[in-house]
Amino acid sequence: MSTELDSVYFVISLVATLYAASLFADRLDHLGERFGLPEALLGLLTAAAADAPELASAITAVATGAKGVGLGVVVGSNVFNLGAMLGLSAVVTGCVRLRPQTLALEGGVALGVTGVISLLGFGVLPAWAALGLSLAVVAPYAAVVVLSRHEDAFVEALGEPHRAHPPHGRALWEPLLLIPVAVTAIVFGSIGMVHWALRLGHSAGLPNVLVGTLLLAVLTSLPNAYTGVRLGRAGRGSALVSETMNSNTINLVGGIAVPALVVGFGARFSNLVAGDLVWLVVATAAAIALLARPAGMRRAGGALLVASWIAFAAVQGIFG
Considering only Cβ atoms within 10 Å of each terminal Cβ, which end of the chain, N or C, has fewer? Predict the structure, then answer.
């Protein structure tokens, strides 16, 4: 099959996946707002929706034996998310700000899980221990977020609640019908994207890690980037940070920890991927530090995160 035809199939898979993910995130976000969900819970649900292409692509790659692509998608997507969601939002809007309690919770969970997966990457922790520790960090967070739907104290700590307007009629049944269709399209579109991206990468002589870290990672993260900037422009800093941090956490747990338990990645990851994990830890800590400033993350801080991803991409191109 010709490279031109491979490119056409790849673009078709990409467009179908991104459109389905956008539809999924929009309908889920709409239901969340209409039900009056707090920003932290809304950010978690939106992250799960917008994160679907990244996670599906990573799992598909690992399941088909392209482990380097799967790892690249996860780590590359996470670094890109910090720059495109938090950094770009700060550059566009001038400031991303949220309550210190929210940042401590969201940032602490994301940094903790990133650190655990980095230990897995360096061979310090076996897969089962990394997964167990990650879930030990995530489970209490999920419980707090779910409880915040009903407890005023948690709602006050995690952000301003929305006024509930429970949907009915078309506002209820339309999203419920479209969401399963969108999920199906995301899964099959991601399978096609990974398959054709690998074919194109092999034709161009690119290593699998580079295909995952730069090509698939960026393209599958576009729904997250779109929803992130949208939340930033709306001044919803709590939901923006929640979506960004939760997206990265979901990627690490679902895209690395769980597959490592099933198929294994070897005693340790390659030097490039291990180095990328260190980069991710530092970038996550830097994002939290910039958000923790009294005035929030300003344009200069956002530009720093964007520059971090550009430098990350340059390193992949040089050493990949």
Answer: N
AA letter at 118: S
Distance (Å, whole) CA 276 – CA 250:
17
Give the pLDDT confidence of 27-40 residue by residue, as tens digits: 776 776 666 666 66
**Which of helix, strand or coil describes residue 141?**
helix
Q: Which of 231, 183, 247, 243 is nearest to 41 (CA)?
A: 243
| Whether residue 238 has pLDDT greater than 50 | yes
Cα 38 to Cα 32: distance, rounded to the nearest angstrom:
8
CA 60 vs CA 69, 187, 195, 254, 266: distances in Å: 9, 9, 9, 12, 18
Q: How crowded is residue 260: how many other Cβ atoms within 10 Å of its Cβ?
A: 25
Amino acid identity, residue 20? A
DSSP element (H, E) containing 95: strand 95-96
Q: Which residue is it, tokens 């167990």?
A: 132
| Amino acid, res. 265 | F
Q: DSSP letter at 14?
A: H
Which residues 6+ apart lie within 8 Å of 12 measured at CB? 192
Q: Quick one: CA dihedral 142, 86, 232, 99, positive or negative?
A: positive
The tokens for 73 are 């998608």
Q: Residue 205: helix, strand or coil by DSSP? A: coil
Tell me if 117 sits within 8 A of 252, measured CB to CB: yes
**String of DSSP letters for 96-127:** E---HHHHHHHHHHHHHHHHHHHHHHTTSS-H
Residue with tokens 């991710």: 280
Contacts of 134 by beta carbon, 8 Å cutoff, 6+ apart: 113, 116, 117, 252, 253, 257
pTM: 0.79
